[in-house]
Design brief:
3 helices; mainly alpha
Length: about 90
């Protein structure tokens, strides 16, 4: 992106006269306004990306905790089923 130039850099590189600059003033001002909007949009997008990453990390932590709780629940359920199963249901030699 280093090859992209601002409107002021382009004006300087083309050695425009004051008359040429005046005749292009509408386009030049429009380009400057678009650059301002582009910078705001880029900053906003970066902030949203950071917020999204933070949310995903938090979601990952929550999911890990949930997985631990589900594992513990499965163990507790297995224990409860074994306690409630009549002794005659177990195979013996």
């Amino acid at each position: 992106m280093n090859n992209l130039k601002s409107i002021d850099n382009l004006i300087s590189a083309k050695n425009l006269t004051k008359d040429e600059i005046n005749s292009l003033s509408g386009f030049i001002e429009d380009a400057r306004q678009r650059k301002i909007l582009q910078d705001k949009y880029t900053a906003n997008l970066c902030n949203k990306e950071i917020t999204l990453k933070e949310s995903l990390y938090r979601l990952g932590d929550i999911m890990e905790g949930l997985a631990d709780k589900v594992g513990q629940l499965a163990k507790n359920l297995e224990t409860a089923l074994l306690i409630e199963t009549p002794e005659s249901s177990f195979y013996r030699e």
